[in-house]
Amino acid sequence: MSPYVLLFNFFFILSVIGAGHALLTRKQPNSALVWVTVCLSLPVVGVLAYVIFGVNRVRRSATRLREEFEQQNVMGHLKPPDHRAHTCLLKELPKELIMLEKIGRAMTGTFPLKGNSIQPLYNGKEAYPAMLEAIKEARESIYLSTFLLDKDPVGRKFVKSLIDAHNRGVHVAVLIDGFGRLLSWYSVVRILKRNGVPATIFLPLSLFPPQIRLNLRNHRKLLAVDGKIGFTGGMNIGGTRDSKGHRRLSDMHYRLTGPIVSQLQQIFMEDWAYSNGAPHQPLPAPMDHTGNVLARVLKDGPDNPDNPLQTSILATISAAKHSVRIITPYFLPSAELLSVLSIAALRGIAVTIVLPVKSNWPFVHWASRNYFIGLLEAGVRIFYQPQPFCHTKLLIVDDCYVQFGSANMDPRSLQLNFELNVEVLDMNLAQQLIEHVDDTVRQSQEVTHREMVSRPLPVRIRDAFFWLFSPYL
Description:
By secondary structure, this protein is α/β, with parallel strands linked by helices. Helix content is 46%, strand content 19%. The protein has a 15-stranded mixed beta sheet with strand order 4-3-2-5-6-8-1-9-16-15-14-10-11-12-17, sandwiched between helices.
């Protein structure tokens, strides 16, 4: 048999295997159809693309590792929830909060924790000094997980503070995403390790041995100090200013105290164990009550087949009685989210979506515009926030429910990334953030239906073309 025939047969078998794998493992029929077509029509390139972007090799191994560490009782000293106490707590909740609390409990299997205090921090001007001060005052432990830790002046301050804390005997552990590490010119992990600080990379990318998992990113941002103070939200560390010192983006982060910090620490430990193969130091005991805020952490990732974050967002918007406010840097909604937002607007809910007027990823901005006409026709109001680029992720339902964190309103965040949001049931915090959103809306430009339908034909074609790739942007 000719070697060319053998080579053709080999590539054909690879294509069939790739197409069969996609057919059996993809959740959505359109996704399965795309990958089957790519594998069969592009025998070499298509299968390679599917192996890199389409195969989820994390779910099984992450689930297995988490079960192993739970059996070893890594988190065992955390007190189990007092169901009677939570039953009493729920009876004390205002009527409008009870339904929203039930949704989160159904998605996560956990009760909200009472006794917390949550402070919004606007931009790096407020967030970075508060985080650095917490690191400086640390006495027992510092756990930092971030998508990006840049080697700019801000990043260098954090690296120095972490090294100083390690040198004075604090247990420090730093986890940085493998893809996010590539966005910085120099890996700070090397600097930390050179100074003795335990640091590791979540799913590092390498050619030898081949580990190319561009689609699986740890997008979570959290800092937990001494089991007492936590920080989370949408903010990376560094990269917020250009070479001339001008602000490149705006963002929000949050300072948390109270029992909720124990949930942040637990998530860090799970991610550290998965990345490093072994647990770090034991968790500090949960902190006493510091306020009156009821909150719970929502985590999601490709190791969780139930998509609790996306489902909680859909269910919470469906339960809205008066209003839905959304700020997100990237808006590529699923068909389910589109339906929920449109139906909410059609039944009289005031739905407001705030997006950046100019995205740092232009093709995402173009693709998102292809969703606007149907939403505008349903009565959803969409606003473009002026520069600098807004990286904030925030959902407010009615006057009592807040969800913030690392997740964007796009398929990557809600289906592929490891994400962390915090769900808050508190009218005071909700009102504070509603004022922020409403003030932002007043400074923003509303997108009109006429504007969208009157786009020139080349622009509409461009927007629709990139819309085709929404699940992969």
